[in-house]
Amino acid sequence: MISLSRLREEMLLKYRLITAIILIPLVLLAMFMLAPAHFGWVVIAVCGLAGWEWAQFAGLKGAGQRIVTGVLFAAGLAAWQLTLDMNNLMADAAVQISLWAALVWWVCAVLLVISFPKSAALWKDSVIIRLIFGVVTIVPFYSGMMVLRTQGYAGGDVYQGAWWLLYVMLLVWAADSGAYAFGRLLGKHKMAPRVSPGKTLEGLAGGLITAGLVSWLFSHYSPLQTLPENLIIVSVIVVLISVFGDLTESMFKRQSGVKDSSQLIPGHGGVMDRIDSLTAAVPVFAGLILLVFSGF
């Protein structure tokens, strides 16, 4: 006789598959078919929903407070986009500052996760600090998405930036899938038991292996003509940071007493549950390639 928990797990998997089948083509269409400015409005909508969800991590539980927070995130990014030159985003000082902020924030986030729950004493009682954490998570995600999407666009290569965005997403998806598979088969040593008991060091190793395979395949078979010299180094760092993007959201959810960031996406939870790794991976990849190393 099939247990109730088994039925729930099978139903959840069904919802996940259906949602993925619908969402993945839509994401690819948005990246490859929309002009950067139009793509930016899609990203802003996603960031607004992420801000709405983050409000509860900051301790703003009321429906009105959460809506206002989400609207402020979206409105602020919309106003910013109207001032940006999509042909040369890296010339904008605010874009550069946001990417540097991401590099600093995700180093700090790693330390907060490693030292949790002791680290919670620094921020758990402050709505302002937790909102600032949301700003340095969501705003650089927007600027990283846009900086990558606009690569090569002004020079006539309309798809170059879309391929780089796809590369980062494939890295994260491969790392997640590899970590899940290796963790289920071989996982023994907990990576961050007080934040996410299911994550193991064996899973992390598996994620790095599968992401490495994706990186190798991409470097050989993508239509891009040139690749950064430091792509492998950057990719390893990005995969590691993406894991902590997931763990950081788990840390905030655990402290806030919530299971999912919301129920917007059937079988997947909320927007933040789907982009948590990408909020770390995208701006860190863009920042390392464009600010720290020699660029594309």
Proportion in β-strands: under 5%
Helix content: over 70%
> What does the main sheet amount to?
2 strands, antiparallel
Order of strands side by side in the largest beta sheet? 1-2
The N- and C-terminal alpha carbons lie at a distance of 57 Å
Mean pLDDT across residues: 91
Rg over C-alpha atoms, rounded to the nearest angstrom: 19 Å
Structural class: mainly alpha
Number of strands: 2
- Uncertain residue segments: none
Order of helices and strands: HHHHHHEEHHH
Oligomeric state of this protein: single chain
Pathway: Phospholipid metabolism; CDP-diacylglycerol biosynthesis; CDP-diacylglycerol from sn-glycerol 3-phosphate: step 3/3; Lipid metabolism
GO molecular function, one term: phosphatidate cytidylyltransferase activity
Organism: Morganella morganii subsp. morganii KT
Pfam families: CTP_transf_1 (PF01148)
State the main characteristics:
296 residues, mainly alpha, two-stranded antiparallel sheet, 72% helix, 3% strand, EC 2.7.7.41, nucleotidyltransferase
Question: Your description of this structure?
Answer:
A hairpin with a 3-residue loop joins strand 1 and strand 2. The chain has 296 residues and is mostly helical. The chain has one domain. The protein has a two-stranded antiparallel ribbon. Helix content is 72%, strand content 3%. The longest helix is centred in the first third of the chain and has 30 residues, at 4-33. The chain has helices spanning 4-33, 36-57, 63-81, 93-114, 127-149, 160-186, 201-221, 231-256, 271-292; strands at 190-192, 196-200. The mean pLDDT is 91. It has 9 helices and 2 strands, in the order H-H-H-H-H-H-E-E-H-H-H.
